[in-house]
Amino acid sequence: MGVMIDGIFHADDPGPDTTQGGAFRRAASTIRNWITPGGPFTPDAGRYHLYAAWNCPWAHRALLARVLLGLQDELSVAYARPRRTEQGWVFDADGAFADAELGVAALHQVYARHSPPYTGRLTVPVLWDRQTAQIVSNESADIVRMLGAFGRGPALYPPELAGEIDAWNELIYRSVNNGVYRAGFARTQDAYDAAVTEVFAALDRVEAQLGRTAWLTGDRFTEADLRLFPTLARFDVAYHYAFKCNIRRLVDYPNLWAYARRIYAMPGVAETVRFEIYKQGYFSPSELRNPLGIVPAGPLIDWSL
After folding, report:
1. Is the Cβ–Cβ distance between 91 and 108 less than 8 Å?
2. What end-to-end distance do the CA atoms of the chain give, in Å?
3. How far apart are CA 299 and CA 290, in angstroms?
């Protein structure tokens, strides 16, 4: 995907970050301004533009918040092409994968406009502020929570459930959202074994919880459920095969599978899901994981209730 160093794009991709023991380590997001009433970035309709990619689970978080909070008319989106190139995430000149806001051909051109000059990986989602011509944030968790400041839709982070949501978020991020990547990008058997064991231990824990409650924190859908769903949507079509997370499938968990389909059936959610694009992305050519770049035909899964 390339990197930016002091605002200059470098196409050489250093590859996944790993520790000495071969375990995957995700780089932290570094642009983390905040939308808040009375601040430099205020929750004004039409002020912001979102850069996303259909196959990125972190961008999927922001897309889910956008539809669940009813912000489709207030927050425009540009979708990058499903597969990255040596230029990273790229856009067409027109059509479904074009950027109507800045007209950029690649995401690094958005990062190049940010001040101070950016150094780091070129990730989505990116929340762009039209008013100041700056990036507000490239941290998906922050973007999800900030969109709640627009005062639309249900409260995804109600104060009375904050402690429970935070606890679930911590588990889900480490062991599920990032856990599948720690399994898929592991460079040693020990690192893979540790990661994949943690993934399924966490899914087992969620399965047990959903045997007691409708949602993770009880009887209402919250940010914790939103943050789990992108991994569930990709699990059987991508992570199970491409990332070797194959101890069990999502469909093998009765409670989790029913829960995932209930979320999928919520208004607007299915519009944020692209199963075929997920396969194109996760089975793209990779020297380590898929050297021939062959995309499998299956699995055929019915997500309808």
Report:
1. no
2. 37
3. 17
The residues that are catalytic are 56, 181
Q: Which two tokens stand for residue 77?
A: 């989106």
Q: Which of 79, 16, 81, 55 is nearest to 234 (CA)?
A: 55
Q: Which helix (H) or strand (E) holds 11?
A: none
Q: pLDDT at position 226, please?
A: 98
Cis peptide before 299 (omega within 30 of 0): yes
Contact of 231 with 27, CB cutoff 8 Å: no
- Residue type, position 36, single letter: T
| Burial of residue 208 (number of CB atoms within 10 Å: 0-12, 13-18, 19+) | exposed
| CA separation for the pair 222, 147 (Å, rounded) | 14
- Residue-wise pLDDT for 255-305, tens only, equals 999 999 999 999 999 999 999 999 998 998 888 788 888 989 999 999 998
Contact 94, 29 (CB under 8 A): no
Separation of alpha carbons 164 and 170, rounded Å: 10
Alpha-carbon gap, residue 114 to 193, rounded angstroms: 40
Q: Which residues on neighbouring strands pair with residue 126, listed in sequence order?
A: 51
Banded model confidence at residue 23, pLDDT cuts 50, 70, 90: low
Angle at Cα 135 formed by Cα 132 and Cα 137, nearest 5°? 130
- At 171-183, the pLDDT tens digits run 999 999 999 999 9
- Return the biggest CA–CA distance within the chain: 53
- Domains and their CATH numbers in the chain: 3-150 (3.40.30.10), 160-282 (1.20.1050.10)
Q: What is the pLDDT of residues 70-126, one digit of tens each?
A: 999 999 999 999 989 999 999 999 999 999 999 999 999 999 999 999 999 999 999
- d(CA 285, CA 294) in angstroms, rounded, equals 8
